[in-house]
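hey
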């Protein structure tokens, strides 16, 4: 293939483009951004020419247009708020959990002011950041001691590194799972220097499987919540109590990676029964780990609870220092935990729990409110209607579990739903819905009451401007 050298030679010079753009650009746009955007546009065109995919030479206006679009995407913040219309409540890609008002306020305070992060106000001496939440976690879970690290993956790594390095850890084959974002128990185990001993079959593991595998090298019996994976049918796993009894008989510790960290029995609200942290602690498991931002509904964190002597050893591990949480996590986590002192308050104030347990009647009313605000104004260009759908719990435990919900369905008259989906993603506050059955759906379970006017305005503006054409 002959490379079009004329086209290559026609590529503009960066300095000339800079001069050309200057009069049309706002003065506060940093030069580095402008220059780098121009370079990237030219580079992209060069690649296109080399690959034979470029058409004719671009005019000055066309270049200017390319530059301006690229500059515009670079001056706006990369990390942005979005509106979650997917109906997936614990949506890892959209930030998992939302904080309660008090937790969000605490986080802002922690950022704007000095704090007693590691300062003991009673003695005036250096304090421990963990002491700020340890008592509360223990009161809520019934555990003797607690520690919080960066996330649950870090918690599992830290516990294994402390308790099982260079020894054998027995795990059921049915629990050797990969949890989203490539967290795999066998890999984490390898990193920690513990040796994995698999027992049982994928669908069934019995107490005698564990017992037979115990050797003088064994240090730990590990239980892992299978979270995003379910084995159904002829299955069996050993209950926590029986494993604890086995561990005691052989002088072995028992650990459970619980994943979601549920503190409230959600089966009372129509969701599947999940073991709560309290139950696992009560069963006598020596050390339990769980996420801060899954069913707990708090900030990203990994919480470790368990027997005091075990947690004390974990606290002393130098690796702990590398995995420690920051003041933003601590401040917001404390406030989220405090909500749990009263279950009703937790269900009301913690958005994750609130959305998961929301009454379909309330969700339906939200959908109707959106249609009332926007329906008439987009008429002729898009049909809005009430649509019965199913939301998903998302991340961690029961990710695929469906909860009946209500959506607003959008059927644009002269554009495909795929265009709609793409255009909504490109808004200053992107609107993220899902496509089902040639309809664009906004599941109102994950759209908050106060976001309804905003969503209505987005729809009205979009269809009024005729961007759908
Ligand atoms: C989600 C999950 C993890 C990882 O937790 P992060 O907080 O995302 O690091 C580990 N184990 C289980 C069982 C999980 O469900």
């Amino acid at each position: 293939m002959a490379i079009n050298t004329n086209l290559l030679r026609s590529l503009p010079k960066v300095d000339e483009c800079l001069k050309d753009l200057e009069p049309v650009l706002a003065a506060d746009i940093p030069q580095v951004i402008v220059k780098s955007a121009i370079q990237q546009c030219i580079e992209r065109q060069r690649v296109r020419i080399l690959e034979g995919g470029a058409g004719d030479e671009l005019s000055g206006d066309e270049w200017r247009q390319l530059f301006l679009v690229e500059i515009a995407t670079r001056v706006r913040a990369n990390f942005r708020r979005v509106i979650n219309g997917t109906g997936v409540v614990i949506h890892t890609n959209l930030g998992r959990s939302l904080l309660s008002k008090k937790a969000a306020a605490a986080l802002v305070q922690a950022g704007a002011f000095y704090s007693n992060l590691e300062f003991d106000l009673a003695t005036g001496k250096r304090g421990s950041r963990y002491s700020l939440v340890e008592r509360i976690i223990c009161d809520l879970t019934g555990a003797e001691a607690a520690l919080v690290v960066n996330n649950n993956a870090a918690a599992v790594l830290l516990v294994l590194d402390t308790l099982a390095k260079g020894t054998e850890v027995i795990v059921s084959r049915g629990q050797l799972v990969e949890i989203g974002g490539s967290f795999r128990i066998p890999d984490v185990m390898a990193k920690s220097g513990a040796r994995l001993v698999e027992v049982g079959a994928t669908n069934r593991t019995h107490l005698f499987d564990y017992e037979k595998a115990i050797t003088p090298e064994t240090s730990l019996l590990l239980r892992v919540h299978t979270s995003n994976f379910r084995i159904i049918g002829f299955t069996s796993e050993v209950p926590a109590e029986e494993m604890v009894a086995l561990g005691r008989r052989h002088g072995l510790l028992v650990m459970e990676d619980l994943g979601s960290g549920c503190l409230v029995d959600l089966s009372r609200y129509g969701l599947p029964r999940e073991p709560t942290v309290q139950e696992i602690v009560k069963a006598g498991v020596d050390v339990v780990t769980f996420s801060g931002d899954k069913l707990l509904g708090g900030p990203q964190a990994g919480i470790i609870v368990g027997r005091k002597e075990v947690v004390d050893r974990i606290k002393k591990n130098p690796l702990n220092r590398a995995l420690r949480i920051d003041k933003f996590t601590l401040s917001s986590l404390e406030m989220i935990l405090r909500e749990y002192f009263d279950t009703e308050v937790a269900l009301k104030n913690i958005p994750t729990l609130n959305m998961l347990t929301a009454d379909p009647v309330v969700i339906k009313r939200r959908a109707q409110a959106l249609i009332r605000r926007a329906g008439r104004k987009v008429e002729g260009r898009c049909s809005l209607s009430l649509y019965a759908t199913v939301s998903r719990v998302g991340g961690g435990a029961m990710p695929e579990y469906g909860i009946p919900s209500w959506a607003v369905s959008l059927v644009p008259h002269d554009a495909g739903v795929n265009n709609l989906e793409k255009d909504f993603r490109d808004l200053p506050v992107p609107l993220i819905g899902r496509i089902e059955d040639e309809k664009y759906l906004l599941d109102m379970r994950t759209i908050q009451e106060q976001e309804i006017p905003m969503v209505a305005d987005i729809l009205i503006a979009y269809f009024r401007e005729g961007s759908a054409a």
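Residues 151-153, 156, 179, 183, 224-225, 227, 257, 259-260, 291, 302, 396 surround pyridoxal-5'-phosphate (CB under 6 Å). The chain is about 40% helix and 20% strand.
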